[in-house]
Design a protein that fits this description.
With 65 residues, the protein is α+β, with helices and mostly antiparallel strands. The chain has one domain: Arc Repressor Mutant, subunit A (Orthogonal Bundle). Helices cover 57% and strands 14% of the residues.
């Protein structure tokens, strides 16, 4: 059983791209990118692309894990 929880936690912590993050939050891609660009939402830009942590987005949105 422990392995299943470890795998789930790993997937939850895997960085996601902007399209997936916008869909997960239920907001437009344009809105998400503006939030990221202005520092209103936790994000990291690498190689011209934005990446997000589901855990940090859940905290930002006030959603329980």
């Amino acid at each position: 059983m422990e392995g299943i929880f470890e795998e789930s936690r790993h997937i939850y912590e895997r960085p996601i791209g902007a399209k997936e993050a916008a869909a997960w939050l239920g907001i437009s891609l344009r809105c998400l990118l503006e939030f990221a660009r202005t520092g209103q939402i936790p994000a990291v830009k690498r190689g011209g692309r934005w990446y997000f942590s589901r855990k940090k987005l859940a905290d930002w949105a006030g959603v329980d894990e």
